[in-house]
Write a structure and sequence with these properties.
This protein has 304 residues and is an alpha/beta fold. It has helices at residues 42-49, 90-100, 105-118, 134-146, 164-179, 191-197, 215-221, 268-275, 291-299; strands spanning 2-13, 16-27, 31-35, 57-62, 65-66, 75-78, 152-156, 183-187, 200-205, 208-214, 226-232, 242-249, 255-261, 280-286. It is built from nine helices and 14 strands. The strands form three sheets. The chain has a six-stranded mixed beta sheet, with helices on both faces.
Length: 304
């Protein structure tokens, strides 16, 4: 079942089209990567979902219902441009933001205490936001996004400003929130984070959706019949079977090559049969393209 369905979303600004007939379905309890280069339309779509701006055409449904003001309470939004009040104390800031989401004071205090302890910020509850480091302020913004336990979390570049330790801490929290039932829309340029976190992805480029689906299916559909081979001996050219794309020495001092089958219908067994007659084979594995490779290929004009 989908928590969010966007159908035919179009948004124009004067002579600029920000989104053109974009449709995406976001499954419940998934981490959904919203990808695209700068200016592709990601932020516009996020703002439409958050009802900050309105689309010119199309519709969005949350849990099957047309998007309306009541859905603000089921969404948690962490924008790329952070927005805390620097002169307010941390605890007061979080209480104010919790009440904006409709939380009662007693419940808000309980959750604020829980999250400050969890992210090791309890000692900073009475400090002003301006006294926090950038990483600490990022944690406070994250707490403000999740403490009302929204069904749908929208995180725009959530790891910006974090060191590796705190980035891993937030990743763990995202997984835990997903496991407890939340759905996460994750917008980022960091493809390594997409590899680690996302179940499904959509790629927007030049205002249009050009790719979407499960991460696993997308990676498998972009296989190129390439294989990494680690071996001892000399590998002769076999132009009828494969071409050697690269050669190097492995960490253990053996030869390592990437080969690509010339016959796109050739199976791994076919390639293996050709190889083992000439070399002492130590490792053979298919090269599955990374999300970063797929992203670059499509954005630069490759086929989707």
């Amino acid at each position: 079942m989908n928590i969010l369905e966007a159908k035919g979303i179009t948004k124009n600004y004067a002579q600029h089209t920000a989104l053109k007939n974009v449709s995406i379905d976001i499954p419940k309890q998934s981490i959904f990567g919203l990808l695209g280069p700068n200016g592709a339309g990601k932020t516009t779509l996020i703002r439409i979902i958050n009802q900050i701006i309105m689309c010119d055409a199309g519709e969005i449904r949350i849990n099957g219902e047309l998007l309306s003001p009541k859905h603000v309470k089921v969404i948690g939004y962490l924008p790329e441009e952070r927005g805390l009040y620097k002169k307010m104390k941390v605890g007061e800031q979080l209480m104010y933001l919790a009440q904006l989401k409709g939380m009662k004071s007693a419940e808000a205090r309980k959750r604020i205490k829980h999250w400050l302890e969890k992210l090791e910020l309890s000692a900073w509850a009475t400090k002003k936001v301006e006294d926090l480091s950038k990483g600490m302020a990022q944690k406070i913004q994250f707490i403000a996004t999740v403490m009302h336990e929204p069904e749908l979390l929208i995180l725009d570049e959530p790891f910006s400003g974090f060191d590796p330790v705190n980035a891993n801490l937030i990743k763990d929290e995202i997984f835990e929130l997903r496991d407890k039932g939340a759905t996460v829309i994750f917008s980022t340029h960091r493809m390594e984070s997409v590899e680690q976190l996302c179940d499904h992805i959509a790629l927007i480029n030049h205002a249009e959706k050009i790719l979407d689906g499960s991460k696993k299916d997308i990676k498998l559909s972009h296989r190129m019949n390439q294989y990494e081979v680690i071996f001892k001996g000399d590998l002769p050219e076999r132009p009828g079977a494969f071409q050697v794309l690269s050669r190097e020495i492995s960490e253990l001092g053996m030869n390592k090559v990437i080969v690509e089958a010339n016959d796109k219908t050739a199976s791994p067994n076919d390639i293996l049969e050709t190889l083992i007659s000439d070399i002492e084979l130590h490792s053979f594995s298919e090269v599955i393209p990374s999300i970063n490779d797929i992203f670059i290929n499509i954005v630069k004009g490759g086929q989707s």
